[in-house]
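Sample entry as discussed:
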Amino acid sequence: MSQVKESKVDQYRRSFLAQSTAIAGMTLTSGVILNSVAQAKSADQPASDKNRWGLLIDANKCSTGCNTCVTACHEENGVTGSGNPETDPQWIRKVKLTDKQTQKVQTIPLMCQHCAKPPCVDVCPTNASMKRADGVVLVDKHACIGCRYCMMACPYGARSFIHEPTTEQIYPRGQGTVESCTLCVHRIDDPNGPRNPACVEACNAEGHKAMWFGDLKDPNSEITKRLKEYGGVQIRADLGLNTGVRYQNLN
């Protein structure tokens, strides 16, 4: 059975490589757009490696039945669907964790972990998947050809394929491409200074205060201070990806 599956994968890869050759003439145009996205904030103030933007999530403060962060994220970024969980895009979702010994149940928000060494970037054949200098992992919609290699490579299942036409979005999105959490990059690049992502803002507004956003390289940022005082863990730390999203009080 495994030999049959491998054969199908090989056939798909050969077909994909042939298709990639056909779009070679588009590389220059896509590359120009790709560079502008990868370097944004703006032409005169590019993203800098002096920053490393990240999230910290306290699992003890994340209520089981609460989906405030999910709703806020999808409303902020115009992420909508047909109501089918199998095909609708999800930039952030709640997942349940159960301690096998104590049977304690926790739910946590899971999104793109904004890895320092993102597997999605490594496997992308068109460089559509990228990591900015400040650690934000993005997808260039102009370069994405919808091959979904990045979705297979992501160990967190954090990427979605857009099956339906998109409307009312802030960050460029398009049918037939892959997308994921951007840490609300349009808020990070606000000319007046970085603002909290929509998920963090909504969590705070509800009084849960389970999420913190900030610069992991800034010793005076609240997120760095909390990590120093209380610690934090990565999901699948064994992979050595150095994620920008950390969790506290996991089982």
The beta strands are 53-58, 92-98, 105-111, 129-131, 137-139, 160-161, 178-179, 211-215, 245-248. The domain at 2-248 is CATH 3.30.70.20 (Alpha-Beta Plaits).
